[in-house]
Design goal:
The complex is a heterodimer of chains A (113) and B (125).
Chain A (H helix, E strand, L loop, with lengths): L3 E4 L2 E4 L5 E7 L4 E2 L4 E2 L1 E6 L6 E5 L3 E2 L7 E6 L2 E6 L8 E7 L11 E5 L1
Parallel strand pairs in A: 2-12
Antiparallel strand pairs in A: 1-3, 3-10, 4-5, 6-7, 6-11, 7-8, 9-10, 11-12
Chain B lengths: L2 E5 L2 E3 L5 E8 L6 E8 L5 E7 L6 E3 L7 E6 L4 E6 L8 E10 L12 E2 L3 E5 L2
Parallel strand pairs in B: 2-11
Antiparallel strand pairs in B: 1-3, 3-8, 4-5, 4-9, 5-6, 7-8, 9-10, 9-11
The chains are: A mainly beta (113), B mainly beta (125).
């Protein structure tokens, strides 16, 4: 199984400042045949289902604000919120879909400082 | 609009069974892989199972293998999760989610772009 880890567990950022979340997979999720990283990021607000933000490690889902960006390749990935807004308070999960055990990271809680 | 609506949750005793349903609308259900994902109270997301567009391929998390069965009825635009031999640790909100579009094995491997609101399953005596 591919194990996903995230850091930090939580972070508090001032409004308008940058938030950075890291995600690491226990093995590469880069598929050499198409050079795509099988890595997604989701946002979950309290009482709501998860929402897809980023797929293929760096492609923003339609309608997602451009302050959200994803980067990385192989085993190391980053989600960046360039200018934190109040509505971005949530838990963020990375997920690999490379294997048929579609594992999620443990989540990172983002709050306002 | 594109929508997934889960139903069938409730309180059940350990060792008993429950079947969840997920009604899809607003898209061509028969063209997509579909998933079940669960979330225990106050915990993170745990993928449970996936089924291919036509039901021919199914995969499960080790934690539910042999106890849960995913299925679909494309004529009814509905996804199911049959849960047998339930345990306290199966207590969670169960979400259905839309996976990849397409008719090859590679299209199983896509992010989950649409999620239902979830249905709560509580396993308790």
């Amino acid at each position: 199984d591919i194990v996903m880890t995230q850091s930090p567990d939580s972070l508090a950022v001032s409004l308008g400042e940058r938030a950075t979340i890291n995600c690491k997979s226990s093995q590469s999720v880069l598929y050499s045949s198409n050079n795509k990283n099988y890595l997604a990021w989701y946002q979950q607000k309290p009482g709501q289902p998860p929402k897809l933000l980023i797929y293929w490690a760096s492609t923003r889902e339609s309608g997602v604000p451009d302050r959200f960006s994803g980067s990385g390749s192989g085993t190391d990935f980053t989600l960046t919120i360039s200018s934190l807004q109040a509505e971005d308070v949530a838990v963020y999960y990375c997920q690999q879909y490379y294997s048929t055990e579609f594992t999620f990271g443990p989540g990172t809680k983002v709050d306002i400082k | 609009q594109v929508q997934l609506v889960e139903s069938g949750g409730g309180v059940v005793q350990p060792g008993r069974s429950l079947r969840l349903s997920c009604a899809a609308s607003g898209f061509t259900f028969s063209s997509y892989a579909m998933h079940w994902v669960r979330q225990a109270p106050g915990k993170g997301l745990e993928w449970v199972a996936v089924i291919s567009y036509d039901g021919s391929n199914k995969y499960y998390a080790d934690s539910v293998k042999g106890r849960f069965t995913i299925s679909r009825d494309n004529s009814k635009n509905t996804l199911y999760l049959q849960m047998n031999s339930l345990r306290a640790e199966d207590t969670a909100v169960y979400y259905c989610a839309r996976g990849g579009l397409g008719r090859t094995s590679l299209t199983l491997h896509r992010a989950f772009d649409i999620w239902g609101q979830g249905t709560m399953v509580t396993v308790s005596s």
